[in-house]
User: What shape does this take?
Amino acid sequence: MRRRNTPAKEAVLEVLKKAGKALNHETVQDNLSIDIDRATVYRVLNRFCDDGILHRVVAEDGKQYFAVCSKCDSEKHSDNHFHFRCTGCNTLECLPTPVQFTVPDGYLAESINCIINGRCKNCA
Amino acid sequence: MRRRNTPAKEAVLEVLKKAGKALNHETVQDNLSIDIDRATVYRVLNRFCDDGILHRVVAEDGKQYFAVCSKCDSEKHSDNHFHFRCTGCNTLECLPTPVQFTVPDGYLAESINCIINGRCKNCA
DNA sequence: TTTATTATTGCAACAAAATCGCATTAAAAG
DNA sequence: CTTTTAATGCGATTTTGTTGCAATAATAAA
Assistant: This one.
């Protein structure tokens, strides 16, 4: 299934690139330069995740946050760093710190989701 | 507001104590010894969290998981350890490993939510 | 350039998780 | 036993995210 370039995809990506942080669906929707249907935005976000262009983090508010993959190899979608979610401006950013962890014997780790909640520099 | 002892509270706590792991609402509901309304179960769980009897973790599936606080001081609701969520049996358990982290200058950390997703010993 | 293929979109309906209003019930204090 | 009000049951609602389907449009092919 060959992907196509569409205004919707460009607009969504533009919002996330400009933000430089992870945003949830609502924030993306609110910042779009053109009018796009809710369902389409969700589908674009999901497709980008499938294609390794975005990565998705679920925060303590139960919402999905999406951010442009920067350090992610296109092959290996590495996401083993901490995230910081600011409860003030409702954004989530990747911290450079990698997460160190081990699991008990016999356990199999597949992915991690480490979020520090608090206030960012601007909102503290 | 003085709390009252009710069959609903006892039943919910019994399920969570027996499980020894964190369970989401649905699993709690399914394992109740008596019939309790959905909304009531949610309210009981929330009240227990407010009172420091349970702690709540939101996992990557977007659901809230609840577990009996064991190592938590009743004053200080410490939850700075890793959690392991098994995608097989749909449970979430507290790992003893504490999470080591720092935040950038000017940032204020309030709580953390660190989950390792994968398969537990039984489901691997 | 024109046509054909099918990925993508919009719309509406749907689903799941969790909350809320309100009248009723029942702990527990007096 | 009576009173007070926390807790419950029920139904409706909110929020987040997905899905079916017909219409649209990006791109490959003629």
